[in-house]
Each structure stands twice: as C-alpha cells, then as structure tokens.
Design goal:
Elements (H helix, E strand, L loop, with lengths): L3 H14 L9 H5 L4 H5 L9 H20 L22 H24 L16 H26 L1
Helix pairs in contact: 1-5, 1-6, 4-5, 4-6
C-alpha cells in the first residue's frame, strides 16, 4: 500500500485537476464546454486568455515533474514554455489537442508522484528552496488559482 502522504498528494492533485472536491470547479471543469473562440477571448489588452492559461498550467505540471525527476525543463512541446501562445490556427482540433496536452501532463506528473519514494518528500528540489512535497502541493494550488481565474474570465465574457 502506498504511503499516506503520497496518497494525500495524489488526491490533492486530482481534486485540483478533475476530481470532485468540496472547493467546487476544478481546472478541467473550468474548461468544459468552451469553444475555441471563447478560449481565445481576452478580458483586456495584454491579459491572458483561457487558452493561454490552459497551456500555462500544462507547462507547470511539466516543470514540477521535471524538477521531481531532477531533469532539465527543456522540451515542453509549446513555446514560449511558461506562457505558450495559442496556435496559429486556433480551431476546435487545436483546442482539443491543447486540452489533451494538459491532461497528459497531469497523468505524467501523477505517475512521478506515485513512484516518488516517501523519503524524498522532504528533500528540496535541486533548483530551489521548496521541498518536493511543497512543489507537488503548490502545483495543485496553482491549478486551482487558474481555475478560479478562468471562471471569472468566463463570467466577464458572457
């Protein structure tokens, strides 16, 4: 049976991403039913659209996974990495592919967390001041922060 701390971190990740939780809308729930046109809507000049927020959260799942593995962050499939731009042809297929990228990054992060030795939870990541447990918890909080932001953008848009 998995360590209770690992199970808890997995639950926190899942509840932020797409599993039912007391806090309300998850990251994936906030994206449900959006058209590409809605995902591209900006609340103001120089403000991020929902599409960019979805890619940004995918990137940070990727970045935390790479940190847990002690690997370089290079190689994220979209650019610029931290705030990827919507594709040149932002159609329904591209939107579906980018949401699938978010889901894939969640699955890959979850797999690394599941296999993380519990003794490494308190270790600091090679690049920072945060422990592995704080990084995992932090990326879940990051998902929820942006889920709330997406909900607000949707209300402004509609």
């Amino acid at each position: 049976m998995a360590d209770a701390r690992i199970r808890l971190l997995l639950d926190i990740l899942d509840q932020a991403h797409d599993q039912k939780a007391w806090h309300g809308t998850t990251l994936r729930g906030s994206l449900r039913g959006l058209s590409p046109r809605e995902a591209l809507w900006r609340p103001g000049p120089k403000r991020h659209c929902i599409w960019e927020l979805a890619l940004h959260t995918a990137y940070w799942k990727y970045a935390v996974r790479r940190q847990l593995l002690g690997a370089d962050r290079a190689g994220f499939p979209r650019t610029p990495s931290n705030w990827p731009k919507a594709p040149a042809k932002p159609d329904a297929d591209a939107w579906k592919a980018d949401v699938a990228l978010l889901d894939l990054q969640h699955v890959l992060l979850r797999d690394v967390v599941r296999r993380l030795p519990p003794a490494k939870l308190a270790a600091k990541t090679p690049r920072g001041t945060w422990t592995n447990a704080e990084q995992i918890h932090g990326v879940a909080a990051h998902d929820l922060y942006h889920a709330g932001q997406i909900q607000l953008i949707k209300r402004l848009m509609r």
